Amino acid sequence: MNRRKIFSSELLDITIQRMTQQLIENHGDFEDTVILALQPRGVFLAERLKTCLEDNIGKSVKLGYLDITFHRDDFRRREKPLQANTTHVPFLIEGKKVILVDDVLYTGRSVRAALDAMTTFGRPEAVELAVLVNRKYNRDLPIEPNVVGRHVNTVASQRVEVELKGENFSEDSIWLTEKEKNQD
């Protein structure tokens, strides 16, 4: 399998700072805005964004964790049962602006499931999507992010692997991997 690093730890820090500034421009002091991280991969990015936001605006930002397992359109099609993650949303989202956070946007199906799961906690005023990597040219649904760390042109045979320190990795790295072709 071929691997090419598309983000180093230093570039990731700069990217998170930039995404934070864009969120502050869009939401000001976050008085009426909350963050919902898609479990499991969006949690580590959302926690970093929350910390950076709080450092910049000087006040607490509400963060919840949203499990989308049973809202996915493919959860019954798998050979093994899916393991659900914890949903922790200690606030209502009724009338709030919600920022959904995930690490990689690929087909859009996870975001569609998140929109369904989110309505359990109320009807938001508006919803935005923030992703670290936007995989272009692979969307199944007409979903586009509002805040993007980086756009990456990919094909179906490629995969984006996000390795963040909080996920048992020694350093932050994001890789673009490609399956090796069988040579007969």
UniProtKB/TrEMBL annotation:
Keywords of the record: Glycosyltransferase, Transferase
CDD domains listed in its UniProt record: PRTases_typeI (cd06223)
Pfam families: Pribosyltran (PF00156)
Gene3D superfamilies xref list: 3.40.50.2020
Protein's UniProt keywords contain Hydrolase: no
Gene Ontology MF terms in the entry: glycosyltransferase activity
Phosphoribosyltransferase domain ranges (all copies): 11-153
Keyword Transferase annotated: yes
Protein name, entry field: Bifunctional pyrimidine operon regulatory protein/uracil phosphoribosyltransferase
Species per Swiss-Prot/TrEMBL record: Persicobacter psychrovividus
